[in-house]
Amino acid sequence: MTPRENGSEEGPVIRDNRKIDPETGKVRESADTPAENTPTENRATEKRAAEQEPGEETRATAQADAQMSGLLAERTADLQRLQAEYSNYRKRVERDRVAVREQATASVLAELLPVLDDIGRARDHGELTGGFAKVSESLEAILGKLGLSPYGTKGDPFDPEVHEALMHSYSAEVAEPTCVEVLQLGYRAGDRILRPARVAVAEPPEGEAPGGAAEAAGSTESAEPGASGAPDEN
């Protein structure tokens, strides 16, 4: 070997690239492997991560809250709708039950009206005495508790909604159509008319009816001779 110009001699350079140290048996760290961060670098990295994470966590929390609020509002609306439907169903069932009960009661009471008519006639003729009088009073009391009530009195104003006129006459003693005689009592169960009262009706005479037939007769008499009988249009 010849000496170098600077007077120094260098021998061959040998590099041991073995990954395992033959003396210790441990894995050697490669020169390309980055060294671990220093404590200062670790704190800076954690600080940056802490600054970034709250914003993302807040957005995720807000989205979750919005989703839960939407689901809660939807379930609440469903519950309110079901509650309203159930309430309406209960009211409808109760209303139908009451209507069926009233109809059934009215049907039974209507079948007993002829019996009450016989009892009334017997009482009018003085034939209802002794034990039969007690039975009739008990029957009438029970029917009264079920809502049956008679109506129809002499002198009542005639009402075609609740009266049935079997006889008609004129009388100067009345100022309007009036029931002057009750031929058969009427019966009602609550607001339901089971049978109208059958009555004799009297009205004021036609000549005394205000603005009625008397004015029409006077206008006919004042028509010109030779006319067809119709009142003068002038």
CATH topology (level 3) name of the domain at 149-220: Nucleotide Exchange Factor Grpe, Chain A, domain 2
Calculate the terminal CA-CA distance, rounded to whole Å. 163 Å
The CATH architecture assignment of the domain at 149-220 turns out to be Roll
CATH superfamily of the domain at 149-220: Head domain of nucleotide exchange factor GrpE
- Mean pLDDT score, rounded? 77
**The level-1 CATH class of the domain at 149-220:** Mainly Beta
Q: Explain this structure to me?
A:
The protein is α+β, with helices and mostly antiparallel strands. It has a domain at 149-220: Nucleotide Exchange Factor Grpe, Chain A, domain 2 (Roll), CATH 2.30.22. 47% of the residues lie in helices and 15% in strands. It is built from 3 helices and 6 strands; from the N terminus they run H-H-E-E-E-E-E-E-H. It has helices spanning 39-124, 131-145, 213-221, and strands spanning 148-151, 163-170, 178-184, 186-189, 192-195, 197-203. The strands form 2 sheets. A 3-stranded antiparallel β-sheet has the order 1-4-5. The chain has a 3-stranded mixed β-sheet with strand order 2-6-3, with no helix packed on it. A hairpin with a 2-residue loop joins strand 4 and strand 5 (192-195). It is rod-shaped.
Q: What would you say about this model in short?
A:
It contains 3 helices and 6 strands, in the order ααββββββα. By secondary structure, the protein is an alpha+beta fold.
Could you outline the blueprint of secondary structure elements for this entry?
Elements: H1 39-124, H2 131-145, E1 148-151, E2 163-170, E3 178-184, E4 186-189, E5 192-195, E6 197-203, H3 213-221
Parallel strand pairs: 2-6
Antiparallel strand pairs: 1-4, 3-6, 4-5
